[in-house]
Structure formats: C-alpha cells, structure tokens
Design a protein that fits this description.
With 253 residues, the protein is an alpha/beta fold. Helices cover 40% and strands 13% of the residues. It has seven helices and six strands, in the order E-H-H-E-H-E-H-E-H-H-E-E-H. It has a six-stranded parallel beta sheet, with helices on both faces. The structure holds 3-methylbut-3-enyl trihydrogen diphosphate (IPE) (2 copies) and magnesium ion.
Amino acid sequence: MGLFSKENKAGQVDLNNLPCHVAVIMDGNGRWAQKRGLPRSAGHKAGAETFRKLGTYCKNLGIDYLTVYAFSTENWKRPKDEVDGIMHLLEQYLHECIDTMEKDGNRLRFLGDLSVLTPELRELIDETNEISSRIEGFQANVCLNYGGRDEILHAARAFARDCAAGEQDADALTEEGFSRYLYSSGLPDPDLLIRPGGEKRISNYLLWQCAYSEFYFCDTLWPDFTEREFDKALIAYQHRERRFGGLKQEKQK
Ligand code: IPE
Ligand code: IPE
Ligand code: MG
C-alpha cells in the first residue's frame, strides 16, 4: 500500500518506499560561483549551506543516512588557497555541529583517510564522534580525503596485517567480512546515489558500496539543489525496479 505524503512539496514521494541510505556527490560549486562572477570559495560556502538544508530535509523525511562527498583524495590537485578555503569551511561547520548536533539529534561520521588533516580538524572530528556516540537517529556521513580505491587499499592492508598476525584466515574472507575493514564499516550500502552538476561519472566515490545503488544524475549545480530537486531524485528512485541480478518480483498473492 503506497502512502503519499501530504506535506511533501512534490506530493508524490512515497514515504513507505524511501531509500534508507542516500549518497550525494556534491558537485558544481565552482561553476555556480563562476556564473555569478564570484570566487570559487563562495561556491563552496553556498554548497555547504545546501548540505545543511538537505540534511534536515532527509532527517524530517525519515531517511536514515545521508553520505556526502566533501573532498576527494584527488582534490589535493587544486590550488592551495582553494584547498585551504575548503578546510577552513569544514572547521567552521564542525564548530557549529558541536554546538547544535545534540539538540538536533544529528549524528555525524567522517569517512576517509583523516590522518593527513590538521590536528585542529582532527580534534574537532574527535569531538563530533564523541557527541555522536551519545545520539541515536539520523546520521550524516561526510567523505573527507576520501577515495574509493584508497579505501579498498587501506582495508586490504589492514586485512593482510591481521592475516600475518594470525587473526584472520585469507581463505575464509567473505564480502561481509571485508566490508568491516572499509571506512564505511557498519553502514548499509547506499540505495540511491545522486550526482548533480552535470557530470556522469563516479569520481572514485564509494566504489565498493555502490555495487547495486540506483544512480540519479542531473544538471543542477549543487548550490542550487533544492528539496524539490531531492524529491525528483526520490521519485525517480521509487520508479526503478531493483533486481540485484535476480528476476522481477512477482506481486504477493
Ligand atoms: C564540488 O564542486 C566540491 C569539491 C570537489 C570540493 P567543484 O568545486 O568540483 O565544482 P565544479 O565542478 O568545479 O563546478
Ligand atoms: C567529486 O567532484 C568530488 C567531490 C564532490 C568532493 P570533482 O569535481 O572533484 O570530480 P571530477 O574531477 O569532475 O571527476
Ligand atoms: Mg567538480
């Protein structure tokens, strides 16, 4: 039985068929700024605002996990002032989270190689982790210095070390067992992956986890991405038939 939301702006999102986990590649910040004659940093600031707004939207809809790509292992190739600006924005965001997440009931988790971040940023992340451990409910995951290949390598190294220490048996390794070595350990795989910004590629995002995710691409630049746009992605997802390699599900008699 489909229950159609009344308060939802689209009026068409089936609240009984929501994805549990939505992943987003937050792309198009730079072009958004360029179009307005603004520095790229203004685009990243506007993009951070969109993330805040959509996090609240997901939580209110009843989606359990929103995972966003904030900075990739490849993004270090950008000019130093852009990278510094993004890291500074993150610090500001984390200060804000520390003040509000408990009250709002929002958990926050970071996925990626955090070892190269500044001690200040790492301390702030530790603080949000500590607060998150006391909260239940909606969780936002921020992929930071994250690369899908880096994640798999990192996991493979850790697994190999455990084998050498006699704690694991290589021949007994399962997909589930390997998943526990990933940065995303314990998270369900994303049901829906959204990429705004016009590009139709995965850019080294959640390579293992998106094996059976539904993909939604659109041209809207991330800072312009609205709740209505998010509804469109959800509706598209709800019209997909997920078979996972099997056959179409017959209706239950
Ligand atoms: C995504 O927006 C944010 C990061 C990669 C940090 P971009 O900065 O890639 O924006 P475009 O793609 O240049 O417009
Ligand atoms: C992907 O966007 C990374 C993030 C959104 C953080 P990019 O802008 O870095 O991806 P490419 O370079 O277009 O593939
Ligand atoms: Mg980009």
